């Protein structure tokens, strides 16, 4: 990005009050400007396509698609888009998932007024932003892997299964999920059956509990 130019930002969070607060922080800077807002991950993808922002700031816990799911899709659709994850969760697993999903930074809401501006500018310089608490997690994870001679554990389910799990847990019917993901309801049912088998679960209720436990939806 040319020096002196303004970074155009897409801001996605399902709480309007949070969006308003974050927007105040960003729009108070000469080089940062929020051009679009979204209330969930799916809307974030639509707005990114429409507005072609330079940077997307995504909350993790959102309806329809989480910030991590949206980040994966946006990284595929718009490879030049920079992505930051904004979250209340100081959680190692989310942090590593954020990096794997294509995000270049992970900012805690509790210190957004301190860290967010620095994170935005680092992202636009193509530099990762790592909040202080995550540095210890990174070092610990690296040392553990080195000692064990292993690599990062693979996720138990695929990205598509995760999408379907989230939507099932949110109470959508198979046909609604099929319409949202533009696949057939038979494909949805097949994925759902695979999820139950892989995770050793029996029904929608247990799937919902699992989705809450791994942070796909809020309780």
UniProtKB/TrEMBL annotation:
InterPro entries: CheY-like_superfamily (IPR011006), NreC/VraR/RcsB-like_REC (IPR058245), Sig_transdc_resp-reg_C-effctor (IPR016032), Sig_transdc_resp-reg_receiver (IPR001789), Tscrpt_reg_LuxR_C (IPR000792), WalR-like (IPR039420). The keyword Phosphoprotein applies. The keyword Flavoprotein does not apply. One of its GO terms (biological process) is regulation of DNA-templated transcription. The modification 4-aspartylphosphate is found at residue 59. GO terms for molecular function: DNA binding. Residues 150-215 form the HTH luxR-type domain. Keywords: DNA-binding, Phosphoprotein, Transcription, Transcription regulation. Residues 8-124 form the Response regulatory domain. CDD domains: LuxR_C_like (cd06170), REC_NarL-like (cd17535). It comes from the Bacteria. This is DNA-binding response regulator. It comes from Streptomyces triticagri. The lineage of its organism: Bacteria, Bacillati, Actinomycetota, Actinomycetes, Kitasatosporales.
């Amino acid at each position: 990005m040319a020096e002196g130019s303004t970074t155009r930002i897409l801001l996605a969070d399902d709480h309007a009050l949070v969006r308003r607060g974050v927007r105040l922080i960003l729009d108070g800077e000469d080089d940062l400007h929020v051009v679009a807002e979204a209330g969930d991950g799916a809307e974030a993808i639509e707005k990114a396509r429409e507005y072609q922002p330079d940077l997307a700031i995504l909350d993790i816990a959102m309806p329809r698609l989480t910030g991590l799911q949206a980040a994966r899709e946006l990284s595929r659709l718009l490879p030049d888009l920079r992505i930051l994850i904004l979250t209340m969760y100081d959680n190692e697993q989310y942090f590593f998932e954020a990096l794997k999903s294509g995000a270049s930074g992970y900012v805690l809401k509790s210190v957004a007024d301190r860290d967010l501006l620095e994170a935005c500018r680092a992202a636009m310089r193509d530099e990762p932003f790592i909040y202080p608490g995550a540095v210890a997690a990174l070092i610990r994870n690296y040392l553990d892997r080195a000692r064990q001679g292993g690599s990062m554990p693979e996720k138990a389910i695929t990205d598509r299964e995760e999408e379907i799990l989230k939507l099932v847990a949110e109470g959508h019917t198979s046909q609604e999920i099929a319409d949202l993901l533009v696949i057939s309801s038979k494909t949805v049912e097949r994925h759902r059956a695979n999820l139950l088998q892989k995770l050793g679960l029996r029904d929608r209720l247990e799937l919902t509990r699992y989705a809450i436990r791994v942070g796909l939806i809020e309780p």
